[in-house]
């Protein structure tokens, strides 16, 4: 089973930033309102994620480290009925198979919390711990038993940049959650969690930049789109700063991103992309079952209709700004 977990880890856990992403998404799934991420040496030495979410029942903690044991979907149609980011039940077993992991968790009202310690997939310790509601997990010695992976990592600067990127994107996507990222005891990025996207933008990119974001809103019989898009002068060299949420869930969809970019027409320079957060509300049944779980790429019924709605909304908003 350890080998199978390591193989799965090869797919899910590529670098420290993948660990951060999986752990933070778990905290989001657990309804956390505050998520602290503490890393040392760009996460290669340690990654700690502390949340104030629902916690894990003491009797379920070791089960959370069993592959697929926690899978929340039984058929692919469930994907959008469960309102959660995780659904494969692979992250914790994968991480525990290639690192040293200590998890502490307690649910509301529990008399005691539960601590488990795994290293290279083996359970080393299982004990009671304090009953603070929520979960904290510390990941050390990432890839200690898979040297090829370790060798493949880039410079600390590059690895840290990827972590910062993930936290910033999640903070933008979930403005009602307070995020904090600390690297080697120094605060790197944070958000207050009051639901205001512009404040998150200001915290991450500065007040000047946040002013260059425009609120958009559009609606038709099937879709409701709200969000923020940047002025054409506020661009990035990658599409990574475009976040799309469907019914509160962070997804990837190339076509929707394309529609957003198309709304800018010739206002964007070649190789430059806007920053944007789009929150789309729709009937979950319009989400196609054609899904690639690893990539979070989803397809939608009536996709071209939604693309038109997005493109037009962006185009019109940019016109009124001129
Ligand atoms: P998945 O998220 O795909 O279900 P994971 O391996 O990431 O699988 O997590 C396994 C399970 O452990 C989750 O389904 C959840 O029940 C529990 N879990 C993990 N992290 C947390 C957390 N921070 N708070 C509460 N429960 C958690
Ligand atoms: Mg998960």
Automatic annotation (TrEMBL):
Coiled coil regions in record: none
Top-level taxon of origin: Bacteria
Domain DNA mismatch repair protein S5 intervals: 201-319
Family affiliation: Belongs to the DNA mismatch repair MutL/HexB family.
Job description of the protein: This protein is involved in the repair of mismatches in DNA. It is required for dam-dependent methyl-directed DNA mismatch repair. May act as a 'molecular matchmaker', a protein that promotes the formation of a stable complex between two or more DNA-binding proteins in an ATP-dependent manner without itself being part of a final effector complex.
Listed name of the protein: DNA mismatch repair protein MutL
Source organism (scientific name): Weissella oryzae (strain DSM 25784 / JCM 18191 / LMG 30913 / SG25)
Source species taxonomy: Bacteria, Bacillati, Bacillota, Bacilli, Lactobacillales
Residue numbers of the full-length protein present here: 9 to 330 of 671
